[in-house]
From TrEMBL:
It holds the Pfam family Aminotran_4. Keywords: Lyase. SUPFAM superfamilies: D-aminoacid aminotransferase-like PLP-dependent enzymes (SSF56752). The keyword Lyase applies. One of its GO terms (molecular function) is lyase activity. The keyword Transferase does not apply. It comes from the Bacteria. This is 4-amino-4-deoxychorismate lyase. InterPro entries: Aminotrans_IV, Aminotransferase-like, BCAT-like_C, BCAT-like_N.
């Protein structure tokens, strides 16, 4: 049975971007022609979470509206290095609970985290969307595996722009950062482009792993 997951930011008992998480759940059900009876805010309120600090509200669900929840303390950790890896066949249109394909990429990599290329275009890491800095403007790749809630939010707020980013122009950018529901846009927490171990000319192909 297919299962899906939402990882939602909760800080000091406040839930963030709930509408975008709800929209993604509804769109998932709609794609599979199922009725959604999951209400993110209602589920959160029923947890009676009363702890301050940063938490990951983990909601696992299936297309029969069965859910499992966890509230996990969360700390943002720094990543030592990244590696560009090509996998043209990886499909993550929906936020599936099964992450074996990502685990495979990570296990074969020599870096802490991978940046996934498809047809030479930059997409995402295994757990986040990406932003790249050029001339004081932050850009997100127009090619992505999953259109994350934080990415959608920042685009709507005009804090970032979407553009084509590939192995052909990645060196035009000076820095990058990771974003997801729990990692906000933060210009104080960025990586120099040199943190990517295998910048062109040599890119690791998943078929070689």
């Amino acid at each position: 049975m297919l299962q899906f997951i939402e990882s939602i930011k909760v800080e000091d008992q406040k839930i963030f971007l709930a509408e975008l998480h709800q929209q993604r759940i509804i769109e998932t059900f709609s794609h599979f022609e199922k009725d959604c009876r999951i209400d993110v805010l209602e589920v959160f309120e029923n947890l009676n979470h009363d702890e301050d600090g940063l938490y990951k509200f983990r909601l696992v669900y299936d297309l029969e509206n069965n859910i499992k929840t966890q509230m996990l303390p969360y700390a943002i950790s720094e990543i030592e290095d990244f590696e560009l890896v090509t996998d043209d066949n990886l499909n993550y249109q929906f936020k599936y609970f099964d992450r074996k394909n990502f685990d495979h990429l990570k296990q074969k990599s020599q870096a802490d985290e991978v940046i996934i290329l498809q047809n030479g275009n930059v997409t995402d890491t295994c757990f986040s969307n990406l932003l790249f800095l050029k001339d004081k403007t932050w850009y997100t790749p127009e090619t992505y595996l999953l259109n994350g809630v934080q990415r959608q939010h920042l685009l709507k707020q005009n804090q970032i722009k979407s553009t084509a980013i590939s192995v052909d122009n990645i060196l035009e950018f000076s820095h990058f950062q990771i974003i997801n529901a729990l990692n906000d846009f933060d210009e104080n927490f960025i990586y120099p482009i040199s943190k990517i171990k295998n910048l062109p000319s040599k890119i690791l192909d998943i078929d070689d792993l």
